[in-house]
Design goal:
By secondary structure, the chain is of the alpha/beta class. The protein contains 22 helices and 20 strands. The protein binds ligand C2E and calcium ion (CA) (2 copies).
C-alpha cells in the first residue's frame, strides 16, 4: 500500500507505463477507483479481447474479456479490495485472447491511498503464465518463445539459417524406469552436452520435455549440422559411459535448412523440424535425418489417406470394395477358390493401391474393423458361389496385426457360424515374415485354425523371409509362390530350377502349392509342366468385382 499520490496520478502512471511497455512482456495497468476507469498498456489490446486500452465501468467490462468460469472468483476478490477487506490483489485466472481462446494470466495489483487513507488507485501488472515460460530451469536453456523471437527477427533478413531438432529416444520409458528426478538429471546433462558442442553462431533452445532445437545462423554448409549432431551424440555416448551405463539412452536429430525449404512462416518451419525429428526416430532412432520435401509430401499423403480411411470406416465402409481373383486347378482347369483382395477409392475418386493403404490400415489398427468387414462379405460371396460350385473355397489375407490385436480365431468362427458355411471353405493367407516363429500368440491361432479345418496358406513365398525349413516346421496347407518369383523363374534358368525343387519339396511333405502371377498362355504352359496344384494370374482373370466374377463363372 502506498500514499504517495502527488507523483502517482492516473495520468502519470499511464505515461510511465507506456514508456516501460517496449521493455517488457507483461502488461501494466492502473485502475482509478474514483472515476471507475481502467487503463492497460496498449499492447494488451492486440493480445486480449479488451474493449480498448482505456475503459470505464470496470467490473462490468471485465465480463467481456474474462473467461466466464473465472469471473465470479475475480468479482469476489475485487469486491473485497474495494470494501477494504483486502489490500493486495494476486490472482491466477484466465482472460480471453483476441481469438477467443483462454489465456492464463497472473494479475497482481496494489492499492494507492489518498491522505485520508481511502483507496483511489490500484496499480499492477498482468503476466502470462500459461505458455510463455521463457527459460527452462531444468536444462538451463532458453525456451521455445526465445527461439520464436530469434527467428522472427532473423527470417526477413536472413534466409540461410539451419535448424537441428534433437530428441532423446524413448525418454518416457527412461522416466518411467528411473523416475522423474533422474529424468531431469539426464535432461540437464544432455543440455550440457549440446551446449559444449556448439560452434559460434549456433544457439540452443529447449522446446518441449525432451526436445531441443539448435539454430545455426552462420553461412556454413548444411554438413555443419550433421557434424554438430555427431558431436552431441559422442558427448551423450560418453555421458552414458561415465554414468557406468546406469541408463542407456540415445538421441535422434532432424535437420531443416531454411535455404532449402523456402518458407518464412515460423510455425511452418517449426512443424518441419517436428517432422524431421519424427522421421529420424521412425527410421530407427539414434540417427540424424536431413529434411527432404519428397518425404514430407509422402508423409502428408499418408496422413490424408489415413484420415480418408478412418472416415470411410465410420461411413459404413464407403469407398472400400472387394475384388476376387480365381485360383484354378492346374490339372483340368477347374475353379478351386478365389482370393479376396481389398480395394479403396478416396472420396475424390482416386484409387489407392493396396500396397499403399494396407500398411496404413495396419499401422493405425484400422485393419481390425476392415478385416471383419472383409470376412463377412467374402463368406457371403463364397456362399453364393457354392450354390454352383459346392467345394468352392474363399481365400482371405490376414495381417499379423489382426492376429495379435484382435481375437481373430473367435471372429472367424463367429463369421463362419453366421454364414452357416463349414470351416473348410475358408483359406487364410499369411505372409511368412519371421513373426510366426517368434510369437506364441500367432502360433496358437494358427494351430486352432488348422484344428478346425480352416486352410492356411503361406503367402509371398520366394520373397523376403521365405524359408523352406520353416515351411517344414509350420506345415501350412498351401504355399503360394509370389509373382516376383514366378517372373524370375520364367526368365532365368537358375531360378527356374529353384522353382522345380521348391515344388518337389512342397509336394514331398504333402502340401499344396499355388503359383501366382501367370499372365500369358506361354507362361501357363511352362508353369503347368512343373505340376503345381493351382494357378492364379491374369491369364485366367484379373481380380474383379463379385458381379463380374459371377458372370465369368456363370454363377447366377
Ligand atoms: P497378394 O496377397 O500377393 O495378392 C496378389 C497380388 O498379385 C494382387 O495385387 C493381385 O492383383 C496381383 N496379381 C495376381 N495375379 C497377377 C498377375 O498375373 N500379374 C500381375 N502383375 N499381378 C497379379 P493387389 O490386389 O494389388 O494386392 C496387393 C497386395 O495387397 C496383396 O498381395 C496383399 O498383400 C495386399 N492385400 C490385398 N488385399 C488385402 C486384404 O484384404 N488384406 C490384407 N491384409 N492384405 C491385402
Ligand atoms: Ca495373398
Ligand atoms: Ca501372394
Amino acid at each position: 500500500m502506498s500514499t504517495n499520490t502527488e507523483i502517482l496520478t492516473f495520468e502519470n502512471f499511464c505515461r510511465i507505463a507506456e514508456e516501460f511497455a517496449p521493455c517488457m512482456n507483461d502488461y501494466l495497468y492502473v485502475y482509478d477507483l474514483v472515476s471507475d476507469t481502467y487503463y492497460i498498456t496498449k499492447r494488451a489490446v492486440e493480445r486480449f479481447r479488451l474493449p480498448g486500452n482505456t475503459f470505464h465501468n470496470v467490473l462490468e467490462a471485465h465480463g467481456k474479456f474474462v473467461y466466464p468460469d473465472d469471473l465470479p472468483m475475480l468479482q469476489l476478490d475485487l469486491s473485497q479490495i474495494l470494501s477494504g477487506q483486502k489490500q493486495e490483489h494476486n490472482l491466477e485466472y484466465r482472460w480471453l485472447g483476441a481469438d477467443g481462446s483462454p489465456v492464463w494470466i497472473n494479475c497482481r495489483g496494489r492499492l494507492i491511498l489518498d491522505e485520508n487513507q481511502t483507496p483511489i488507485l490500484m496499480v499492477g501488472c498482468i503476466n502470462e503464465i500459461g505458455n510463455q515460460q521463457k527459460a527452462d530451469n531444468v536444462s538451463g536453456l532458453p525456451g521455445e518463445s526465445f527461439l520464436r523471437e530469434h527467428m522472427k527477427m532473423l527470417i526477413p533478413v536472413f534466409s540461410k539459417g539451419m535448424l537441428l531438432r534433437i530428441g532423446i529416444d524413448d525418454f518416457k520409458t527412461l522416466n518411467e524406469r528411473h523416475g522423474m528426478g533422474y529424468g531431469n538429471y539426464i535432461l540437464k546433462k544432455v543440455a550440457d552436452c549440446i551446449q559444449q558442442s556448439l560452434d559460434a553462431l549456433q544457439y540452443a533452445y529447449r522446446i518441449v520435455s525432451d526436445e531441443f532445437i539448435i539454430l545455426d545462423v552462420s553461412d556454413r554448409p548444411v554438413e555443419a549440422m550433421n557434424l554438430l549432431y555427431h558431436r552431441i551424440r559422442s558427448a551423450v555416448d560418453n555421458l552414458v559411459k561415465q554414468q557406468h551405463y546406469k541408463a542407456l539412452y540415445t538421441i535422434s536429430g532432424g535437420i531443416v535448412s531454411l535455404e532449402d525449404i523456402n518458407i518464412t512462416n515460423y510455425e511452418e518451419i517449426f512443424k518441419l523440424t517436428e517432422f524431421a525429428l519424427a522421421e529420424a526416430k521412425n527410421r530407427g532412432k539414434n540417427q540424424v535425418y536431413y529434411f527432404r520435401a519428397e518425404d514430407y509430401e509422402a508423409f502428408l499423403q499418408r496422413r490424408y489417406i489415413r484420415s480418408c480411411l478412418r472416415q470411410a470406416i465410420s461411413n459404413d465402409f464407403e469407398g472400400f470394395s472387394l475384388s476376387y481373383q480365381p485360383i484354378i486347378m492346374s490339372n483340368g482347369e477347374h475353379l478351386y477358390a478365389a482370393e479376396t483382395l481389398l480395394r479403396y477409392r478416396t472420396p475424390d475418386g482416386k484409387t489407392i493401391s493396396p500396397y499403399e493403404f494396407i500398411p496404413i490400415l495396419e499401422d493405425s489398427g484400422l485393419i481390425i474393423p476392415v478385416g471383419k468387414w472383409i470376412i463377412k462379405n467374402a463368406l457371403d460371396m463364397c456362399a453364393e458361389c457354392r450354390k454352383k460350385y459346392p467345394d468352392f473355397k474363399i481365400s482371405i489375407n490376414l495381417s499379423y496385426i489382426q492376429l495379435l490385436k484382435s481375437p481373430m480365431f473367435d471372429e472367424i468362427m463367429d463369421a463362419l457360424n453366421l454364414s452357416s458355411l463349414p470351416p473348410n471353405c475358408l483359406i487364410v493367407e499369411l505372409t511368412e515374415s519371421g513373426h510366426l516363429e517368434d510369437s506364441p500368440a500367432i502360433q496358437n491361432v494358427w494351430r486352432k485354425l488348422k484344428n478346425v479345418d480352416v486352410s492356411i496358406a503361406v503367402d509371398d513365398f520366394g520373397t523376403g523371409y521365405s524359408n523352406l525349413q520353416n515351411i517344414g516346421n509350420l506345415r501350412p496347407n498351401i504355399v503360394k509362390i509370389d509373382r516376383s518369383f514366378t517372373v524370375k523363374a520364367l526368365q532365368n534358368e537358375y531360378e527356374f530350377e529353384l522353382l522345380v525343387h521348391i515344388i518337389r519339396m512342397v509336394h514331398s511333405i504333402g502340401l499344396n502349392l499355388v503359383v501366382e502371377g501367370v499372365e500369358t498362355k506361354d507362361e501357363l504352359i511352362k508353369i503347368t509342366a512343373l505340376n503345381p496344384d493351382f494357378i492364379q494370374g491374369y491369364f485366367y482373370s484379373k481380380p474383379c468385382p463379385k458381379e463380374e466374377f459371377f458372370e465369368k463363372f456363370q454363377i447366377a
